[in-house]
Structures are given as structure tokens and as C-alpha cells.
Amino acid sequence: MQGLKKEWDILPVEQHHDQKDYASALPRWCPGCGDHAALNAVRRLCYEKQLPPERTVVVSGIGCSSRFPHYMKTYGFHGLHGRAFPVACGVKSRRPDLHVFVVTGDGDCCAIGAGHWIHALRYNMDLTVILLDNNVYGLTKNQTSPTTRLGEHTNTHPHGAMIPPLNPITVALGIANASFVAQTVDWHPAHVYSTIEAAHQHRGLSFVRILQRCPHFSAHVFDAPLQDPSLLLLMEHAEGITLDADKSKKFTTRMQHDPRDLNRARAVAAREDVYPIGLFYRNERAACYDDFTSQGLSMTQSERQNAIRAAIDRFAI
Amino acid sequence: MQATTAEASPVQARVATTVDEHIVEIVSDSGEGAQTCGQIFADLCARHGNGIWTVEIIPAEIEPPKRSRAGASGNRIRLGSRPVTNAGDCADIVVAFNEQVLYSRIDAGALRPGTIVFVDGSWLASPDERIVQQYREALADFRARGYEVIPLPIVEECLRHADDVRKGKNIWVLGLLCAIYDLEHTKVLQTIAARFARKGADTARRNADLFTAGYEWALRHVEQRFRVAPCAVPQDGAAQGTVVMNGNQAIALGIMSAGIEVCSMYPITPATSVSHFLASAFEQTGGIVHQAEDEIAAIGFAIGCSYAGKTAVTITSGPGLALKTEFIGLAVMAEIPLVIVVVQRGGPSTGLPTKVEQGDLMAALHASPGDCPKIILAPATIGECFHFMITARKLAEEFRGPVMVLSDANLATGQQPFPKPVFDPAWLAPPLDMSPVEPGALPFAWDPETGLSPRHIPGQRGGEYVVTGLAHDEYSHVAYESSINQRAMRMRSRKLAVLQSALKPPIVHGDASGDLLVVGWGSTLGTIEEAVDRLRADGLKVSSVHLRFLSPLEPGLRELFGRFKKVVTVEVNYSDDEGDPFITAESRRYAPLAQLLRAHTLVDIDCWSRVPGSPLPPSVIAQQLRLKLSAAENLCRA
Q1: CB pairs below 8 Å between A and B: how many?
Q2: Mutate to test the interface with B, among A43, A93, A121, A314 (most CBs of B within 10 A)
Q3: What is the enclosing helix (H) or strand (E) of B52?
Q4: B542-547 and B73-80: which strand pairing?
Q5: Domain limits for position A133
Q6: From the candidates A51, A83, A306, which should be mutated to test the interface with B, based on the most B CB atoms within 10 A?
């Protein structure tokens, strides 16, 4: 670099990254899998925001969706089934400098990891959470998930799912201190990107559910809104997720929804006649657990040492 | 028989009987503060220069029925003129707030003929005739059993100073005990002031009054006086002074001193009090306690924190360990440093939640899918509870994986003095290394000889990789080739052999060879060595060895065992007894340490183990060892 001695080998602090800096392996998901849309959006977000790859961590559980970190050239944590949330919270706890994403599926998040999901929403740590919801267990070949629609045939319920599905959005909106809840669909890449961008922008846990299809086991589940796009209800608001005018014009069914209105958000989320997409709810003043977990990080070594000595002295006789 | 009352004639001041050691128990209904009384008394004895060891007597419920055998709550304090390492045998003095709770101690074998029993005589004045009847019958029974029974007018005396006697009796009794053992009055009042300062000036003053009342009443009315001289040599043998605390407090202080910044836990007895102390003190040293939504989340959070560079600790007990096992496997597989403290209690299932057992050894070693090599340490003293935390963090980072520290309910609540740790800044973790990794450096660059590899931490440029619980190669890429798994397993296992090569053989207590070698681990150190010393005093060729490393095991065990005619483990664990119906040499299930050592050394190791939910007394161990010795002799003769 100009002006620096030859032996000066410290890398510059800032470094420009191009798109390939965020892409590692070619994804091994099936052609037509909705996961590709989410991966493209997250890679693009990292590039647009120039997130340093070394300070970006993608945490996942187990399932097709949870292969996600392997396809990002960032730090990644492909852990245990259902346990992405506690790991991600731990990663963030003493490292506020890291951008932490959580990628999970409907089995991972809403079944085996449901307890952690609920409490992660409460902790409201600064995580960007993407639920890739294809209504089915894909990796283990077609078992009923908590979001499988009533009557859908699977290998575990060949006569059809017999219990109504859980709605992850109404659940999330029911959790105290949840601060960002949004929904999008895999077949509208522009809306997927805008939603993930808004989620990343938000300080606190941003929960994004992406409705998507598994080409093998649930290819048909969103045939209705695909064949009749008027069934997609686009929530719009100055405070919400914004799309370019030419893109939003494609949605024939639109409504104004103020994302500060929790009661209205719950009512829209519960509608079964349409597929609402956009931002249901955002609360920028919700308590963030990171404020607690990061305490003491600025202590100096000598402050820490003196405090430890004082703690030991409490037991002196 | 009548309760002694304040109007009774004062006793003559007696000359104190000097004793080498004494065992004192204070028992009450739950919630009457006998535990607090015992803790303060123990603290005072330690300040007086006595060696001490305490054991909490804990009911499993918060509010068990009053005046019931099951509800006994309190503390045992063994004080001596030399360092005390265990709870000892039978009590010399028991103070009971009612006669029914005393029965739980009798059932536990804690009393002997001649034990001095102070019991609250106020029950005679109860309006409930059944209570009066129970009391009369019990006292007659106590005398028939040979105890020296002395009723006290506790309620009557306390009512002079407090409205709620349930919250005052314990401090009055503390005064009584301090008079009997002639502990310095002013020091005691300072301790009381410090202890109750947080609860306000009124409470502190009322407790000071109650203490003085108990103290003076005892001077006037109690004949018994004992003097337990301070230890001749300062217990520390060093200039840094002495600290006294229980094992859970020592673990908490050790966590801070190790430079660990995050303790992630879910409440479980008897481990929780570690986090109670940490929650009150961690903030000042820049750390946090994360109370997770469950045991699984607690370890997951700790692993996330460790992965991001700050080695964390998670604390649990047996049932929690069972829930954490999948994550422990991940930490082994992904080589994530982590400290796991397991404060063992009685099992299986919910078992004996407040009582001591060493039953989690096998779970610690093996409870995970597949082969899951990890380091396991077991402190044997309160001081080791402190120092092992520092060792544990360093080993976790050096060997890149989870380190388990097995404590138990006996260490958790036992108070013992030990040399005040002189804090060394080298104990702390170094600041995170955020420098870019060397070009081409791999996330699992296993040294082919040692299996050790440096790790990359988020923030290090060029070190980006994906942790996975799937079998993986040096790149952390999922293993699709069959040879990778064998190689990776070998590398993770090799680390334990490397650590073992750096360990010293354990030190033998007693002669290096002989007729019988006793092997123990964890909190039984003091009681086993005391039992062995008694046998050695009788000329028997008995020695003992106490293991601190359980995975890898300390080196040289097979050779050591070969120098003794018989080797037996003593454990607070279940094992089948020889001679029981259906129990044969083939069907007998051994205690966990015996199983482990038999498999490891191919020596025919015997065991003696019991699960009474209380520490094993040295006299009982000595008696069992004698039986083992004579059985071995008979076998030789035959």
C-alpha cells in the first residue's frame, strides 16, 4: 500500500467485499427448494451492507434449512436439532460486535426447539432469525411438522395430518417482549430481500417466517396463492417493509397496517382467508437481553483483578 | 421431668474439659434457622483457629410438616485442634428445637450413648396434649438410650427479646453454644452484625440481644464447658491467611478467578447455590449469570459463548447432566472449550435431591451418543473446588473440548478453611486474539501425533469455517469419505492420552505397598484417610489413594495396584453386596469407580459402597475395611 513500508503487513481494518466473498459451496438443496431464495437474500444483504465475513455468524439447527451456514463464507454453527437459539444467544452474549443470523425450519423451530424459540423471542437479543417453513420434514423424508396443514398426507400420517397446524406468526405475536415479526413468501425474491433487510436493521430479535415449498413433499401447499395472487395480502406502511412502487403494484390485495399496533397485528396474523405478508409488528423499545449479557465487557484487566481479590477477601477469617 | 427455667439456681462456673475435637449438631424444623446457626457457629470456630468440617442436614421440601422426623433441617459441625477433613462419626452435642427432629438424627445413626442432647423443653407447656405426651415419651426414650438429656427453655427465653420465636431461637442457641465452647463474645457480635446488616438495624440489634441472652443463660445454667484448642500450627502454614467457605462458594470464586465471564445455568439442587453467590458477586468482576429456560439451553448458551471465544461454564446436577448430554457430544465433536460442573446428588431419576452420592461418574464418562472422550476432574476438598476451576478452564482451551468437574452435595454445602488463594493474573483468560489467521490455516489442523489443534474465533479474518456436529475433516467439511471418521475419532481420543502423559502418578496415603489399598475420589478423601489412619494405628498394612483425574486416569495405577494384595474402592454409590441372593462373581454389579478401574487395569478390584444419603463415617469405613482384610486373609489361608 502506498506510503507504507514493505514489511508493514497488518491488514487494513476496512476491506471491500464482493458477492463471492459470502458464497462458499454450491448449495446441495434440491432444485426448486425455497431455501435458495433465502440464501440468495442473505448473501445479497451481507454484500449490500458490507458485513465483514469474519464478524458474521450463521447459526442453525438440523434439517434441510439448517445446512444454510455451510453455504455462507462466514463463520457458521451447524449444531443440534432444535437448539440454534440458545447457541446463537450465547454467541451474541459477549460479542456484540458480531452479526448473528439464525436459520431454522418448521420442525427445528416449532417442534423440537419450540421452548427455546419462545424464550429467545422473550430475550430479544439482537439476532436475525429466518424460519424456512415448508410445512414438512424434508431431510428425514416427509413427516408431519407442526405447520403441516390439516389432512396433508405424510409418511407418519398416511391418512392425513389430524391436528390443525400451529401458526408461527400468532405464536410469536403472543410472546411477551417479541419485537419484530414479519412474513414473506419464497416466490417473491424482492419481498424476501426487503423483509430480511428490515429484519437485519432492527435491533432485537427479528423473526421472519418464509413460506416456501419443498419440491418433493410439499410442492403443492401454496398452489392457491400462486394460482390466485390476490390471496396474498401485502401489508404496507411508512413504518413497515417498503418495496419499490413497481414491485408493490404487482400485489393486487394490499392493506395499510401500522406495525406498532400489536392487537391489529394479531388479528391480521390469524386470518385464514388470505396469506398476509409484510411486517406485522415492530417494537424498537422492547428490552434487549444483550444489554445485560454484555455488562462488564468494558472493564479493564486491573479492575477485574482487584474485584476478584476483593471477592476472595470476603471469605477471609 | 421439668424444663429448666430461668428461675432455676445458677450453676457453679465449671472448668472446661479440653477435647481434641467435638461434633456438634443443631437441628430444627425447616425454616427455624438451625442451618444459619450452624453456619455462623462453624465460621466462629474457624476464626477461633479450629479445623472444621460441616454437613448440612437438609429436608427435600421447602415446608415439610412441623415436628416431623422427615422435616429435620440443620447443620453438623465437626471442630478440632487439627485440620478436619470430614464429618466424623457420632455427635458429642446435639441441640434440637423439638424432640421429633432429633429422631431423624437417631435414625441416621448420628448419636451414641453419652451424647449430650439439648432439647427445647417449652413443648411441655403446649396446649396440645398430644404434643406434651409425645415430648414426655421421647425424653424418657432418649434417657433410656443413654443420652445425657438437658431441656432448655428456648421459647420462654426468646420471647423476652423477639415476637416471632421461630426467627429467634437459632441465635439464642448460637449464644448457648458460644458459652459452652467459650468463643470470644465480641467477635461473635461482629459476625452477627455483619450477617444481619442487610436486614436492617432492628433485626441486627434483636439478634445481638438474643445472642447475648442465650450466652448469659448458658453461663448461669449449663454445667458443660468444652475447650477445643486452636490448631497448634496455623492451618495454612503460609502467610497469606485463611478463608472459610463451602464447596459451591469455592467453585463460584474459582469461576471468577479463572477469568470465566459467563455462567449459564438452570436451577437444580444442590448446584444452584453456586449461581446464587455468583449472581451477587459476578457483576463486580465483570461476569454474568444466565438463567436459561432449561438445562439444554443452559449448555447451548455456554457453548455459543465459548465458540465465540469466551469459555463459559455451565453448572448442573445429575438430572441436568442427563439433559445436557447431546450438547456435550457436540462440544466434543466440534472441539469447543467448555467447563461443566456437576454437583452430584442421589439418583437415579429425581432420587435424593439434597443428599450426597457419587453416582454420575459413568454418566459423565459415557452419556453421549458414540465415543465421546472428555476430561473429567474431581476435587476432593473445598480448596480444590476453587483451584480446579482454574485448571479446568485452561485444560478446556488447551485441549479444545469440554472439561467436567464432578463435585457432590457433601462438598457443595461443607464448609472448610483453606489457605487464602493468592490471586495470580495468569489465572485469567488472555484477551481474545482477533488477528487474522495464517493463510491456509485449517479449523481442525490436528497435529498427527497429539490431536491438538488451534481454533479460529469469530472475528479472525480468514478463519471463517462452519462448526458442525456431523463427522468432519480438518476443514470442518462434512465427512463423505469413510476414512475421515476413523481419523477424526482417533485425533479426539489421542488428546486424552497426551494429557495423561503429562500427569503425575497419584500420591499414596500410607505405605507404597501392603495388604489393602483403598481407592476413592471426590468428597470422601477425609473420611477414607481417617479410617485408614485408624487401621494403620492398629498395625494393619492399609494405604489409600485418591484420584483427582477420572478421564484420563492418572498414570501408574496398574503398577500401584499390583503392590497391594487387595484393592477396594470406597464410594457413596450403589453396588451389589457379595453373598446376597443371586449375587455371584459374574452377576455382581460393582460401584462405578470399581467398574472403571477394573476395566482400565484388569485388576480384580473389590468395592464397598453405600447410598445412605449422608457422608460415610470413618468408623463405618474402618469396620468394613477390617472385614475386607480378614476375608482376604481367610482366602489366603484357604
Answers
A1: 196
A2: A93
A3: strand B51-57
A4: unpaired
A5: 19-289
A6: A83
pLDDT in tens, A12-60: 556 899 999 999 989 999 999 999 999 999 999 999 999 999 999 999 9
Measured from the Cβ of residue B555, the count of other Cβ atoms closer than 10 Å reads 16
Full 3-state SS string of B366-432: HCCCCCCCCEEECCCCHHHHHHHHHHHHHHHHHCCCEEEEEEEHHHHHCEEEEECCCCCHHHCCCCC
CA B66 to each of CA B31, B131, B156: distance values in angstroms, whole numbers, following the listed order:
10, 12, 19
> Is-contact B419 B383, C-beta < 8 A?
yes
The whole-model pTM stands at 0.94
pLDDT digits (tens, 9 = 90+) for B531-545: 999 999 999 999 999
**Does B412 share its domain with B447?**
no
Contact check, Cβ <8 Å, B423/A312: yes
Of B402, B427, B452, which marks where a domain is finished?
Answer: B427
Task: Tell me the CATH number at B552.
Answer: 3.40.50.920
Q: What residues contact residue A49 under an 8 Å CB cut-off, 6+ apart?
A: A200
Give the strand pairing for B21-28 and B93-96: parallel
Q: How does DSSP assign B118-161, residue by residue?
A: EEEGGGGG-S-HHHHHHHHHHHHHHHHTT-EEEEE-HHHHHHTT
Same domain, yes or no: B308 and B404: yes
Question: Rounded CA gap, B148 and B152, in Å?
Answer: 13
Number of H helices, E strands in chain A: 11, 11
CB contact at 8 A, B94 and B115: yes
Q: Residue B408 region, left (φ>0) first, then alpha (ψ -120 to 50), else beta?
A: beta
How many Å apart are CA A245 and CA B9, to the nearest integer?
100
CATH assignment of the domain containing B99? 3.40.920.10
Name which of A76, A91, A309 is nearest B466 (Cβ-Cβ). A76
Which residues are paired to B570 by β-bridges? B608
Domain that holds residue B141: 17-227
Q: What is the DSSP letter of A108?
A: I
